[in-house]
């Protein structure tokens, strides 16, 4: 039985008294997935994962890991494992990244509201983000509950949106902030089509599936679809749908990418060291 302390009226909880490195039993892993279906974001404090332990836990939690990341398109990461995404303010040599460093500029786009790996098929399911080095200044991550955002739409809008499909491209989302992939890099990131409205199988709840990567609505004129997506993102990220996570060292935060969006908040990353490691599972099976 997990002990969950709610962190927000609608979603997000802290789980206390669990060392995830020791969680191997199928029933215990299923209990965490069950809590994910309720809360969509779970915070575990004091989880001092090594890289190998994090990859191992993510794999036994939910199977296959996402490795076709945007950062992998920029070249190999410093861990030699693209399933371990390096969301850090440092370069491969461990020094702070400079202002114009391309990996840094690509990571900056995490400040746009998004859901991980919506630009591949199968898309991302759970992300597990480990806070290895946390700066002394605030560098929060915000989450929005896309199930509550769906629930709050009126019936006419629900009817209008429920069958729509959306093209997701990380090349598009990077372009919106003026970051361009080379043609060779972009060829590794072709994008994917997903429904605008998803049903989370275990809970049966419906969710708006949005992201900065959402480029346009299939079969709609591009400007009209893009404006509709911007309107929906504005709706879904109203304060009542948002939980703000304040990082402590060795936090492990797990979120359901089918049910939430998230964004990083700004901090002076050219001055303060921050090292996060992300593993994201793929939405395969139930
Ligand atoms: Fe992300």
Largest sheet: 7 strands, mixed
In CATH terms, what is the architecture?
4-Layer Sandwich
Q: Mean pLDDT, nearest integer?
A: 95
Q: Can you list the ligands bound to this structure? A: fe (ii) ion
Spans of at least 5 consecutive residues with low confidence: none
| Silhouette | globular
Estimated helix fraction: 25-40%
Range of strand content:
15-25%
Number of domains: 1
Cα gyration radius (Å): 18 Å
Description:
The protein has 286 residues and is an alpha+beta fold. It has one domain (3-282): Clavaminate synthase-like (Double-stranded beta-helix), CATH 3.60.130. It is built from eight helices and 15 strands. The protein has helices spanning 26-39, 51-62, 102-108, 146-151, 155-161, 170-176, 183-187, 222-236, and strands at residues 3-6, 13-16, 41-44, 85-88, 124-133, 141-145, 165-168, 192-195, 197-199, 206-208, 214-217, 242-245, 252-256, 260-264, 275-282. The protein has a seven-stranded mixed beta sheet, with helices on one face. Strands 12-6-14 form a three-stranded antiparallel beta sheet. It has a three-stranded antiparallel beta sheet with strand order 8-7-11. A hairpin with a 6-residue loop joins strand 1 and strand 2 (13-16). The relative contact order is 0.24. The chain binds fe (ii) ion (FE2). The site of fe (ii) ion has 4 residues, from loops.
């Amino acid at each position: 039985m997990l002990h969950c302390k709610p962190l927000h009226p609608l979603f997000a909880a802290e789980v206390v008294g669990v060392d995830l490195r020791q969680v191997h039993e199928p029933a215990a892993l299923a209990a965490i997935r069950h809590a994910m279906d309720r809360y969509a974001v779970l915070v575990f404090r004091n989880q001092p994962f090594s890289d190998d332990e994090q990859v191992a836990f993510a794999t036994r939690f939910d199977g296959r890991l996402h490795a076709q990341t945007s950062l992998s398109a920029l070249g190999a990461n410093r861990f030699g494992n693209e399933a371990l995404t390096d969301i850090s303010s440092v370069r491969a040599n461990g020094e702070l990244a400079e202002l114009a460093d391309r990996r840094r500029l690509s990571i900056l786009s995490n400040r746009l509201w998004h859901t991980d790996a919506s630009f591949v098929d199968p898309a991302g399911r759970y992300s597990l983000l480990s806070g290895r080095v946390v700066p002394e200044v605030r560098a929060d991550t915000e989450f929005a509950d896309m199930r509550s955002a769906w629930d709050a739409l009126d019936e006419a809008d629900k009817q209008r949106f429920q069958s729509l499909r959306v093209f997701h491209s990380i090349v598009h989302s990077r372009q919106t902030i003026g970051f361009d992939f080379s043609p060779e890099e972009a060829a590794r990131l072709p994008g994917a089509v997903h429904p605008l409205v998803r049903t989370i199988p275990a809970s049966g709840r419906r969710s708006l599936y949005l992201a900065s990567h959402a480029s346009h609505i299939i079969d709609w004129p591009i400007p009209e679809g893009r404006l509709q997506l911007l309107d929906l993102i504005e709706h879904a990220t109203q304060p009542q749908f948002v939980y703000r996570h304040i990082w402590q060292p060795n936090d492990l935060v797990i979120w359901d990418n089918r049910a939430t969006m998230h964004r990083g908040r700004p901090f002076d990353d050219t001055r303060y060291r921050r090292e996060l490691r992300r593993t994201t599972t793929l939405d395969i099976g139930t």
